Each structure stands twice: as structure tokens, then as C-alpha cells.
Amino acid sequence: MSDFHQNGIITDFHNLTRRPVEDLETDLVAFSARRPMSLILPSLFSELEGPALSNIVDEIARVPYLSEVVIGLDRADREQFLRAREFFARLPQHHRILWNDGPRLRALDAELEAQGLAPQQPGKGRNVWYCGGYVQASGLGRVVALHDCDILTYDRGLLARLFYPVVHPQFNYEFCKGYYPRIAEGRLNGRVSRLMVTPLLRALKKIHGPLPYLEYLDSFRYALSGEFSMRTEVLDGIRIPADWGLEIGVLSEVHRNYSTKRLCQVDLADAYDHKHQPVSAEDASGGLNRMSLDIAKSLYRKLATQGVTFSAEDFRTIKATYYRLALDLIEAYDHDAVMNGLRLDRHAEEQAVELFAANLLEAGSAFQDNPGERPFIPSWNRVKAAIPDLPERMFQAVELDNAGEV
Fold first, then answer.
1. Strand 143-146 relative to strand 37-44: parallel, antiparallel, unpaired?
2. Per its UniProt entry, which superkingdom is the organism in (predicted)?
């Protein structure tokens, strides 16, 4: 049975004793007649050569309820795209690869750019945005799920639990966010979530008051997870960042568009491990350094749409309040690790907090210095209003890439 309870703002499906995956899949096969399901896999070509994706594909190949699998492939030349077609050919489900660097999709991107509608930078957000447009154009799914391609501990039960709340015919959820414990190889992981997002949200609540938006974000057990599912119509109206702020951006958009009664989160796995980003303290363009900057900017932008104003003094106050709260949390995490026999490097934790604190100021300066910045990719509703036949032409381009010579 599941421990079904209300976690303050949104419904939380926390599994104490998990149903066997075969039972879930039997239900999902029945549900798929009414709500067919699509899966999006945003991937770099390098992940095809990594330790995780081959097992993920083998597990997905055993899933009996999917109508389609859509793979967004970034950073691949022609030879690498052809290798990707062979790599994913073992999937028995209907599947298509979006070769984002191929000439056909690049030409459509240039057309969008001429209209001021193209994503402004490469990244996961851009990849997911194009995959979402393709899912709408294909019309094969009414519910779509997304998860990362670097999950080392992946099994198909994760996907079944992610789909279940949105697909069940007696539920009315539009969106579901996944979460899981960030523990692997005896270490407490999830640094950006633990050491940056949680204390930052609580600092912002202390400074700006108990805003519904901040309470909502703080109700998620793992706001930065890359796993979520939604009805396909949700894709029409959301505007997401192209950078590392994708997860916060998606949560913010569904909060803006839907009642919290239509949103939920679900416990996906007992163990979860993936490729860990380096801190990259000396390189603001990579690793957790870049991630923390993008997330802070995304939060500031979303708060501005809530009517919150910021000054340079505000950002200094945010930094100081965040820093104190983060140090207090490190103390709690250290005690938690000791009690559970886990390793935690307090020195590295405090170094990460110092970097994140500095990036809160850097993100604030970037937010103030670029008032004309277009940080969000336009919604697909706007794209279809400007270029009505573009989704159909994108669908045809993907078909040609997957079926013919490239």
C-alpha cells in the first residue's frame, strides 16, 4: 500500500511498501487505452557511451504500455547520429530520435530564430522543448513523462510510478514530480538541492514573507529532480528556461497555470544514483557553479513575476540570510549522516555553500544588469500562432532523419 497524504501544498504519494512493478504495469496497460503514454529522453551523444544509458534502454524495452519513445539527441554529428539510430533500434516500441544538430532541425531552428521564437542557448531545456513540440505533433500520447539518461540505478519501476498518478482514470492530476533519496555508495548526495535550493527558499521566505509560490516550491521533497510526467496539453502553455533552471522553471509554470490540487509528487525509488557534476569552483560556465547561477536567476525572475522587487541591498541580505541557514543545515546533515552510517565531508559542504552564496550575488547582478533578457523559451501555443505548420514540418523532418539517408 501507499502512504497517501497531503504534504502541505501538493499531494504526496510516499510509498512505504511498494507494489511489484508487474502489478503497476498491468494497470498501466489497461489505462493506456484511455490515456496513451509517451516518454521523452533528453540525451547527449556522450551518454550513449556512458555506463547508464544502455541499461536504461534495456529496461525501457521491457515496458509494455508506451505508445512512443522520443529521444532528444544533442551534440552529435552525422556519424554519431547514425550510431544512435543503431543504439536505440533495440527498442520494440515506436521510437524516434530528434537529431537536434542535423540540417533539417537546424533549418527549422533558424526559421524560429528569424521570428524571435527560437531557444537562445543550447542545453537540456532547449532539447526538452523541441521534444515536447514533437510529442504534440505526433499525437501518439496523451500523457508524457521525462527522465534523465544518466541514472545508474535505473529500473522500469521508476517509470511506472512516475506515470501512474497522471494516467489513472480516477485521478485528475495534470502534473507529477518524482523524488527519491540522494544516497549512493555510502554518501549523502544532492548538494545543490540540500545546500542551495532549500536554504535559499527559506531565506527568501524569511525576507519576503510566506508567499504561496515559495511555500509551494518548498513543499517538493526534491525540486531539482529531472523526472516528471504531465498531460500533453500542459506542454502547450508553459514557458521554460533553456538552462539549468529547467526544473524550477517547469514547477513555476505549472503553479502559474494549474491549481495545486491538480499537482502531485511521487516517491520513485529506494536508491538513485547518477553522474555527479563537479563543483567547478574555478569555472562559472560548468558544473554546480553554473547550475547554481542558473537556478538563482530562475528564482529571481519568477519572484519578479509575483510582484517582488529587488535592490542590491536585497541581494546582500539574501546572501547573508541564506549563508546562516545553509550552515545550520550542514550541521543537521552531518548528524543525519553519522546516525545512518553515511559519509559527509563537512569541509567540502561548507566550500560549496560559500560558492553558492557568492553566486546568489552574481545572479542578482545579472538579473539587474540585463532587464531586456529573454530568459524563457516561448510556449508552443505562441509558436503555432506565429508559424501554424511548423510542428507538422518538424514531425516530417524527424521522420526523414529516422527513416532515410542523412
1. parallel
2. Bacteria
